[in-house]
Amino acid sequence: MITTLAATGLIAAFMQTVVTPIIPELPTLLSTTSADASWVLTATLLAAAISTPISGRLGDMYGKRRIMLGLLMIMTVGCVIAAVANTLIPMVIGRVFQGVGLGVIALGISILRDVIHPKNLGGAVALVSATLGVGGALGLPLAATIAQYLDWHFLFWLSTMFSVIAIITVATIIPVSTLRSGGRFDLVGALGLAVGLVSILLAVSKGTEWGWASPLTLGLLGGGLAVLVAWGFFELRISNPLVDLRVATRRTVLLTNLASISVGFSFFVCTASLPIVLESPVASEVGLGLPLILASLCLMPLGLVMFLFSPIAARLSQARGPRTSLILGGLIITVGFTLAVFFLDEVWHVILVSTITGIGVGFAYAAMPTLIMRAVPPRETAAANGLNSVMRTLGSTISATVAGIILSSHVIVTNGVGTPSRDAFAYVFMLGAAVVLVGVVLALFIPRRFPTYDTQSIPVQSIS
Question: pTM (2 decimals)?
Answer without folding.
Answer: 0.82
